UniProtKB/TrEMBL annotation:
Record-level GO cellular component terms: chloroplast envelope; chloroplast thylakoid membrane
Record field: compositional bias (Polar residues): 48-58
Stretches the record annotates as Disordered: 48-76
PANTHER family, alphabetized: EXOCYST COMPLEX COMPONENT SEC6, FOLATE RECEPTOR-LIKE
Organism the protein comes from: Morella rubra
Record protein name field: Uncharacterized protein
Organism domain of life: Eukaryota
Length: 402
């Protein structure tokens, strides 16, 4: 079953706002390309690598070879030049972009990180080993450790992204096999990678579409899994009830489940279907029918009592057509007294404000198509004719009792 964290993004669509900044661009600035950072990138991001202070080197003739480094990226750097690039990046990670969120974003945008990875971590360790300042030593060790953890996450996300990009028609199968890998962090990573394609809108849109396909597949998988788990749990409870030594014992088990708030709709539906099938069958003995009927009525009664009393009052009021009788019923509902809950009659009381709140919640949910915001027991009120009656009830409560 999906965690709450996972559920939080399920209903969201992946929307890309083109973001004109890539780490390969700023990395080019580090190794000597003073024109690398685009003029229209955001100020705080263009400052990640200050292009006005490039790390240029000289060859044996004394000429700057920044042009060659610009063409080759980090692959053309010798050890000495790579150390200088790594030192600049360490400064960026410690000073300019010091948060793990920044680091994740920079690694996701990077086109050069795969080449730099071993050199960077080795340089962090070397500088920490030679550092005399305890505070700086701690910062370097922490940077190396934390960035390595983030880098492993990013590599894992990239591997999964490659799998789904290679088989977009098999996304549902991939989700079923690797559901635990489709985390909130993965979708954030996918969004960031899509942003890095700002120069290629077609590829960017294709990646955003792929992300939405993944979200839909995850939602379908979770819904199916939850339904299966609910049915399996309900079946176990149903078998336990059926195996009771007597009808009274079976009914007590249903009562106990209700008291623990474990009498779910799946179990009630299972009991209802069993009773319905037995009632319509000529092959079932009357004794069995009688047992199933008692179980059905017990489950139904308990399920009704699990419903908020305001919803029960509303449902009762909706059965009354006569305006005068309905007004009397409202007056009774708002008159405090001893509450009684029986098999045939319930005496329940509430306040005009509470009842008004519940009625308005149902009406608003109907008009704004927010059925999912209602508790399960109130969703059967989402009917145009019932909504008309509820709106009329709202006016009566407002005019007569508030």
């Amino acid at each position: 079953m999906a965690s709450n964290e996972t559920k939080s993004y399920r209903s969201c669509r992946l929307v890309i706002n083109p973001h004109r900044f890539t780490w390969s661009t700023t990395l080019a600035a580090v190794v000597g390309d003073t024109t690398a950072v685009p003029n229209n990138c955001r100020a705080e991001e263009s400052s990640v690598f200050n292009a006005s202070h490039p790390v240029q080197t000289q060859d044996e003739t004394g000429k700057c070879d920044g042009k060659k480094e610009e063409e080759d990226g980090t692959e053309g750097l010798d050890d000495h030049k790579m150390i200088r690039v790594c030192d600049k990046l360490i400064e960026v990670f410690l000073v300019d972009k010091p948060t793990p969120t920044d680091w994740r974003r920079l690694l996701a945008f990077s086109k050069e990180w795969d080449n730099m990875r071993p050199h960077f971590f080795r340089r962090c360790q070397d500088r920490a080993d030679s550092e005399d300042n305890p505070g700086m030593k701690h910062k370097l060790l922490r940077l190396g450790r934390k960035l390595k953890e983030i880098d492993e996450d990013v590599q894992r996300h990239n591997e999964l992204l490659q799998v789904i990009r290679g088989s977009p028609s098999d996304i549902s199968e991939v989700v079923a096999r690797r559901r635990k890998d489709f985390t909130k962090e993965f979708f954030v990573h996918l969004h960031t990678v899509a942003e890095s394609y700002y120069e290629n809108p077609l590829d960017q849109n294709a990646l955003a579409k792929l992300g939405n396909m993944c979200l839909a597949a995850v939602q379908s998988y979770d819904t199916a899994t939850e339904n299966i788990e609910a049915l399996n749990a309900a079946e176990l409870k149903f078998q336990d009830i059926i195996n009771s030594p007597s009808v009274d014992a079976a009914c007590r088990k249903i009562d106990n489940l209700a008291e623990k708030n474990q009498l779910d709709s799946a179990l009630v539906l299972m009991i209802t279907k069993a009773w319905s099938a037995a009632k319509e069958s000529n092959m079932t003995k009357d004794e069995v029918k009688d047992v199933l009927y008692h179980l059905y009525m017990t489950a139904r009664g308990n399920l009704q009592r699990l419903m908020p009393k305001e919803i029960r009052i509303v449902k009762y009021l909706l059965t009354i057509d006569d305006p005068e009788e309905r007004l009397c019923a409202l007056q009774d509902a708002f008159t405090p007294g001893q509450e009684l809950e029986g098999k045939d009659v319930d005496n329940l009381y509430t306040t005009p404000e509470k009842l008004h709140t519940w009625i308005k919640a149902v009406v608003d949910a109907y008009h704004f198509s927010r059925e999912g915001t209602l508790i399960r027991e109130a969703r059967d009120l989402m009917n145009p004719r019932i909504i008309e009656k509820l709106e009329e009830l709202t006016k009566i409560v407002e005019n007569k009792f508030m």
